[in-house]
Amino acid sequence: MPSITDAATLGDGLKRTRELAGRSLAELAADTRVHERYLRALEENNHSALPSRVFAIGYVRAYAAALGLDEQLAVERYKRETPDGVVPLQPPVGIAFEEVRRYSPRIVGAIVLIAVSIIGWNVFQRVSLMRAPQPSDIAEVPESWSLGAVIGQEPVSVGAPLPAPPDQTTPALYITPGLEAQLTGIDPADTEALAAAAAANDTPVQAAFNPRGAIYGANATASQVVLQAKKAAALVVRMADGRVLFARQLAAGEAWRAPPGVAATIDVSDPTAFDVYLNGEHGGALPAVLTPLAQLNSRAATLARQTAARAEAVAAQAAAARASAAAQASVVQTTDAAQTALTTAVAPR
Length: 349
Hints:
By secondary structure, the protein is an alpha+beta fold. Among the domains are: 10-81, 434 Repressor (Amino-terminal Domain) (Orthogonal Bundle), CATH 1.10.260; 215-296, no CATH class. Helix content is 46%, strand content 13%. It is built from ten helices and nine strands. It has helices spanning 10-21, 25-32, 36-43, 53-67, 71-81, 97-129, 143-147, 179-184, 191-200, 293-346; strands spanning 215-217, 225-229, 233-239, 244-250, 255-258, 264-268, 274-278, 281-285, 290-292. Helix 4 (53-67) runs antiparallel to helix 5. The longest helix has 54 residues, at 293-346. The N and C termini lie far apart (166 Å).
């Protein structure tokens, strides 16, 4: 096949090549699926009969491929022979650049003037505040200044501080009116009965045992004597036959419960380092370095009997008071009934 560049025009080259190949426009139209009139327009260089430039380039490419020619070379020659007549993009219209350039110096000047005014006002305010204060002229002296001290307006002086009030951590016990007399049989208005009851119950309440560490020894339900270390100290408990029942260096807060009915001796390094608790209440310190355990158990038993006796006495006193109150109520009720019957008998019929 001859080259597409040998012909004078693209249309002449396409037509010459088709004639040499012995093919008709109808055959090429069927192969390329391009209408026959468009192929004839390409051979005759009648570009006005072709559709838009995009379709025309597609027809050229298909025509050259059907004839076995270089498609890209044919497209490039078509573009050179038919330059694109589309108008290039133009800047948008309707904006008056001359007007902007004309007024831009005025706008810039106004902005600069406003900025200078704001800065100047702030500087003026700061300079005004930085001026040294000047003494003011008093037009008239108040009368109280010239009269001196005024009665009732003596100067206030602060004396020595007063001691803090005593701490009150336990609120006063509320007593329901009439309930105390009903339970104890003591009239709250009777000072002598109150004094006697206070004298009978004047035994101070001791501090209760408070575990603050490990507890060794007997069970809590079986023991009545507890030794608690206030500081680190050694505790050794020896049986009557010389055997060691307990031996340990107790730390502060640790305790040992003594078993009941055991004949032993308590041997400590420092008796003041241990507190003795009898029946759960504080019983003082150990009396000596060597203390018989039976002595402490005997004290605990004595205190238990005393506590039980006091409880029985209080219960008996309360029962007697209730019986007396019931007897008085019965006498009053009998008297009221007799008086009512007498009034009914003497009433006129």
